[in-house]
Design brief:
The structure is a single chain. By secondary structure, the protein is of the alpha+beta class. The chain is built from three helices and six strands, in the order ααββαββββ. A six-stranded antiparallel sheet has the order 1-2-4-5-6-3. β5 and β6 form a beta hairpin. It is globular, with a radius of gyration of 14 Å. 31% of the residues are buried.
């Protein structure tokens, strides 16, 4: 299975409106348009939405080598509230070994401002994705 097919099988990401823009080994970029369904009771994008977008590109990047990789740790820091526009998330590989890989994901608003920073570590299995 190629990484684009893997990404398109993520029903939750599709349900939230996330679109994969590009993917390569250890790298992924996606975006989503903010709708009223993404807002919390304070009128800003829910933290879970930001986490979901970041987690999606994390999953694509760490599975991009064709073998199953699963999260063993993830954390996110939120820097500013967003209420409208388009969000983008870019995952970049920081470290890769036989068993573990580490990624930094930046979530940005329409103007390129940093909204959140996500750090993820994955355990790399031997099984092929798909």
């Amino acid at each position: 299975m190629d990484i684009n097919r893997f990404a398109s099988a993520d029903n939750f990401a599709a349900r939230t409106g996330i679109r994969l823009i590009e993917a390569d080994e250890g790298y992924a970029k996606a975006s989503m348009d903010i709708t009223k369904d993404h807002l919390n009771s304070a009128g800003t994008v829910h933290g879970g939405v930001l986490f979901t977008l970041a987690d999606f590109v994390f999953a694509v990047a760490c599975n991009s080598y064709g073998t199953v990789a699963v999260a063993v740790h993830a954390s996110i820091s939120y820097f500013k509230a967003v209420t409208e526009g388009t969000l983008s998330a870019t995952a970049r590989e920081v470290s890769l070994s036989r068993k573990l890989s580490s990624y930094t994901i930046e979530v940005k608003d329409s103007g390129g401002g940093l909204v959140a920073l996500f750090q993820g570590m994955a355990y790399r299995k031997k099984d092929a994705i798909g």
